Write a sequence for this structure.
């Protein structure tokens, strides 16, 4: 009877060894893959860092250029603003404002209408502050309207030498219907009749106007008064 040479322990050891080598091989492959992945990641990160660094440098350079441009534009704007103020001061010194502008407009109008410049210059040089002025007086007249049905109202000044009258727009009641009295917030037409002349002023009250009659200058201010009425506040001074 012969004995078999099969050894089950050796067989189990061989299988365990094979499994161990297979596991070792698998772990080696995983470790190698991890190392390669880390290396490639490091290389990619380095490349991205270089790209980002270059972009940052470009952005910094562009920012510096923009800051220089803003500084230059700001300096030019300040220079332009200073120059504008200088020119405005020059214009203001040449072109009069307020009463001076009104006088300049009046002088130009008189010359355009044929007034002799030398005569106008003489009148201006002859002008002087008012003297021998009277006390201020007050009269009133009814401002007529389209809905007014009463008698025509006028103010007589200087023994009838100056006649003042006027009309306006009707005030409206709560229903929007016109009333007999005028609306003092709307423009009023005031007529000055004197020495065959008829001067018409149309604007909101108060209205200021002066009239020369004989050797006196009459200075008027037309103001709103009691309902339906306009007040005529005036005085007179020697002329010229």
């Amino acid at each position: 009877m012969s004995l078999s040479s099969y050894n089950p322990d050796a067989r189990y050891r061989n299988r365990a060894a094979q499994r161990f080598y297979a596991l070792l091989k698998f772990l080696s492959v995983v470790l190698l893959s991890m190392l390669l992945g880390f290396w490639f990641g490091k290389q990619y990160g380095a490349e991205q860092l270089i790209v980002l660094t270059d972009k940052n440098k470009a952005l910094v350079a562009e920012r510096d250029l923009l800051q220089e441009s803003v500084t230059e534009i700001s300096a030019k704007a300040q220079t332009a603003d200073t120059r504008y103020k200088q020119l405005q001061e020059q214009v203001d010194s040449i072109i009069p404002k307020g009463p001076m502008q009104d006088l300049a407009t009046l002088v130009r109008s008189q010359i355009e209408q044929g007034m002799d410049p030398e005569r106008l210059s003489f009148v201006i040089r002859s002008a002087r502050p008012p003297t021998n002025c009277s006390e201020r007086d007050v009269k009133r007249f009814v401002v007529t309207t389209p809905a007014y049905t009463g008698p025509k109202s006028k103010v007589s000044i200087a023994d009838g030498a100056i006649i003042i009258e006027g009309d306006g727009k009707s005030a409206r009641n709560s229903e929007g219907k016109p009333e007999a009295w005028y609306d003092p917030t709307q423009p009023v037409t005031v007529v000055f009749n004197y020495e065959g002349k008829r001067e018409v002023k149309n604007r909101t009250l108060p209205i200021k106007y002066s009239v020369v009659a004989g050797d006196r200058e009459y200075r008027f201010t037309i103001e709103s008064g009691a309902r339906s009425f306009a007040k005529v506040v005036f005085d007179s001074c020697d002329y010229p």
Observations:
- The radius of gyration is 51 Å.
